[in-house]
Please model this.
Amino acid sequence: MKKYLAIIAVFAAACTPAENGTKPVIEDDSAPTDNAAAAGKAADLKVHAFDCGRIGMLDLALFSSNGEYEGRENKAADMCFLIRHPEGDLMWDAGLPDSFHEQEEGVTNGPFHLSVPTTLASQLEGAGVAPGDIEFFSISHSHFDHVGNAAMFAGSTFLIDKDERAHMFRDEAREEETFGLVAPLENAETIEFDGDYDVFGDGSVMILAMPGHTPGHTSLQLTFSDDKTVLLTGDLYHLIESREKRIQPTFNTDKEQTLRSMDRFEALAAETGAQVVIQHSLEHMKALPAKFNSPN
Model:
């Protein structure tokens, strides 16, 4: 897929370069938290759902390793989220670069038509939050459409699965034209984890290990004070149909690992009665309130 993404490099060049020297990486190798047994009552959460870009999938066949989507196209959302917790804020994913907003007709490159109708910066301003005030930043994975504005949060503590961090900063990745999008994160204050990660220590915001799309791909579980749950998929699924039929893209790093992650995700969804939000589903984006304290 990377051969189609050279256009991103033009916009990545505008990102803040990494500073010399590195800040320490704190490794968290504690055992994964049992979500069903999170201690105490979850804190009150306020969630902002942001429109972080649109993706025209002009060759949907890339997103089905079994040929299911041959000859089809799809219009996709690119959602990212601000989770406000009494102990701090978490920005989850960073969409396409805000600089795409300057291209009124969007940008077509290979099998993708990319556009940003509303900048993330303006949506954060509308929420009354400055990027520099956000304590934590995390990504479901390091593909270009989830890290487009990562430089905006280089001053936050970067929460990342250890395998994903190794993947995004490997030698081969450094040679890719999109590396400039993530380069500012390399020297950010970082917490690496192996398995699930409880962001605030009360079970309300759980980063869940769901590898396979990339080596350290994650999803996010939000548990509200009324015990309702939302599961944000990252790119475990791209379409509603992908979830129904267990379809995965041709470019996933590990097919069997993906299937195991799907099994785990569905077990959690059934156990908690969660509302599942597929982050690339336009239908899900349109149905989700821009701000909510609990799922619908």
Notes: The CA atoms of residues 193 and 214 lie 16 Å apart. The chain has a mean pLDDT of 90. The two ends are 36 Å apart (CA to CA).
